[in-house]
Amino acid sequence: MAARAVPASPPGSGGGPRDRTPPPPKPPAPQPDPARAKPTTPETKRVVAVLDEAIRKAEVATLLSHVAANLESFEARLGEELSRAVRVHRDLASRLDGADGGPGPEARPPDPDSAGEPRPGPRSLRRELKGSTRGILRLFAARPEAAAALRAQARGRHPVAAALVARLAELRGFVFEKLLTSPAEEREKREFTQEVARRAGRNAEAILALRGELDAVVRTRDAEAEKDNLADLQLKTDLQLVLRFSQTQLHRTRQEAEKPQKAELRTSQGRCAKIQQDILAQRTQVNNLVSENREIEGALRKKKYKLETEIENWIQKYDGEMGEKQMELEELQAVYTEEKAQLAQLQEKHAVLRREYTQITEERQITSKKKLEEERELIVMVRAATLIQAFWKGYLVRSLMKSKRKKKKGKGKK
């Protein structure tokens, strides 16, 4: 961790070992099983602790150039001692850049007071820079909050430095997995790898066999395609011959068709001339008919005007008569309305009288019904009384007859 921090290169600067783009990050290492994610032996704990400490120091060391370039913004969080150490580190880095091959982006002009003193070489500057880095890391270790604040500035880290931190994290995961893997698990992994290799060999043989079959099929298909191409070429040749023959036949047919067409054209021209003469004659006849029709139209217009005048007179006469009829109709309507009102009054009176008559008739019917019932009851009672009297008379007669018979019997016994 004593290596010099990689300074951040400004955008657009020339390519160099500090400016090359880092390789793409590898996929993350497989994480250990959570059931045994904690080291158990002291040796494992020490190794993991050393790796974690190395990663933390690398994170801080790779951000020193960013902190040195923006020391004013970090000075309040770092404190006076750390700020002074970072400032000294920045001066050493600038001097080393100047000694390596020219002033760096943050190099300062030489101090005139030290112009006569011998300048240290790059090797001694590197040793001083390593010592400065160790001192800064010790100061950050004494102040964890400052280290945490610095690690939060991951965006200021150079891509190469970021790749270094990522590789260290991968190394830590790989070593941790190795430390947690038992010999039995290692043997199982080795056997599994060998089995996978054997399967890969068998698959490769199968792939070779399939490729041979595929090549044979491709050759067969190419041969068939070549045959099809030859057949297509033959068909195209035949088609061109047929096309040429059809064009010749078409030209000959056109020539044969043009001969009767010319004769018909001459005949049609003669017919057109004759039709033109007929048109002139018909036009003259039409003009004569138009003159005659105009005279007839004038006479008809006069007749129409006369009829319209008569119709207008008849309409006026009709309007006058209809006005008189309308007045008579209105008078009759008034009389009708009055008589209708009287009729309504009479109908109301008639309805009242009708109801009274109906009521009287109903009362008379009820009275007559009562009389009939009383007469019927009287007749029934008279009949009943007559029957009772007759029965009673018969009873009395029979009683007298019985008593007379008893008397006669008594006298006879004596």
From TrEMBL:
The keyword Kinase does not apply. It is found in: Cytoplasm, Cytoskeleton, Flagellum axoneme. Residues 1-45, 94-128 are annotated as: Disordered. Residues 22-33 have a biased composition (Pro residues). The keyword Cytoplasm applies. InterPro entries: DRC10 (IPR042815), IQ_motif_EF-hand-BS (IPR000048). It comes from the Eukaryota. Keywords: Cell projection, Cilium, Coiled coil, Cytoplasm, Cytoskeleton, Flagellum. Residues 315-363 form a coiled coil. Component of the nexin-dynein regulatory complex (N-DRC). Interacts with CFAP52. Component of the nexin-dynein regulatory complex (N-DRC), a key regulator of ciliary/flagellar motility which maintains the alignment and integrity of the distal axoneme and regulates microtubule sliding in motile axonemes. Belongs to the DRC10 family. This is Dynein regulatory complex protein 10. The lineage of its organism: Eukaryota, Metazoa, Chordata, Craniata, Vertebrata.
